[in-house]
Amino acid sequence: MSFNCGIVGLPNVGKSTLFNALTQTAAAQAANFPFCTIEPNVGKVAVPDERLKKVAEIASSAKVIPAQLEFVDIAGLVKGASKGEGLGNQFLANIRETDAIVHVVRCFEDSDITHVDGSIDPIRDAETIESELMIADLESIERQIKNVERKAKSGDKDSKAQMDILSRYKEALDELKPASSVELTDDEKALAKTFGMLSAKPILYVCNVSEDDAATGNELTKRVEAMAAEKGAEAVIVSAAIEAEIAQLDSEEDKKELLESMGLEEPGLNKIIRAGYSLLGLRNYFTAGPKEARAWTINVGDKAPRAAGKIHSDFERGFIRAETIAYDDFISFKGEQGAKEAGKMRQEGKEYVVQDGDIILFRQNT
Fold first, then answer.
1. How far, CA to CA in Å, does 179 sit from each of 171, 183, 189, 203, 289?
2. DSSP state of 13
3. Distance between CA atoms of 95 and 203, rounded to whole angstroms?
4. Do 74 and 7 touch, CB atoms closer than 8 A?
5. How far apart are CA 358 and CA 293, in angstroms?
6. I want to staple 322 with a disulfide (CB 3.0 to 4.6 A). Which of 158, 159, 204, 348 is the partner?
7. CB of 224 within 8 A of CB of 123?
8. Does residue 304 carry a pLDDT above 60?
9. 350 and 305 in contact (C-beta within 8 Å)?
10. Helices vs strands, H then E, count in the chain
């Protein structure tokens, strides 16, 4: 299953520059692991994880295959998108298909790059997009209520459950609050996904700054960070211009030198990828051997059989046990044999909740 983040923003905020840097970086890495660009505006990138490299070194793995995350560069939005203005219909349809939103806001001044609203105000820009999402949601909710209401009144149990959530969503949207503000139980969340609420999707704010502000941010990024904190979201600071430049460099030495000259420890894209991964509630477990070390993507709370199914469905159906070593133990005792001798390899059953960084060998019926 592919997990993806839609990159959104007003025109001229730098979202396509960031997306291009992401895909160029991925293309440059393609010699080391599988990469594909599905369409001109869709690409998969590696999720940076230093732990995987260390696991591979200890296991003397010939190949290293990281987890991947898909990014979608969604058409620029303008005010009135919910009514079909500009590429509004396409924009909203594309967002509906994504798992999370990476919202790029402009936090730099540049007289050569005009802003669609004539001035730089990232909070206003964020509110423009979020308002369009909520308007589209409200229209969708009203249609869905009409379809469900009659069955709910007749006593249909499933329809009553749907009506309860739809009514709470409508109440929030009428009060100009996003669908994400509605508290739901785990069971309700599973049902709510079928309603396709745009404003219920998790959001990561990306502050695009000038090269001079890449290391420290500025007053505009502080405002965005405060807004994100109020919403229970996260904000990261990047310079699309720097990221585009880094993506063009061939050697790791040159990239490191450029980053150091800018006062940066790593590319901003790494922060976006990791934050996007976390936003989706994703974690990694590892498999390691002489042929390859690989990161596998799971959801927080996944149990061992489901995690095994990420490798192959047969592994889930025939699951017997998971021979598990915690990441810290694998590193401390220099691999599987050392961990086993130290009594750190555990035999876990079907109810075991896989932990982030576990190194696992699955046993199954054949």
1. 9, 9, 12, 12, 45
2. S
3. 12
4. yes
5. 12
6. 348
7. yes
8. yes
9. yes
10. 14, 12
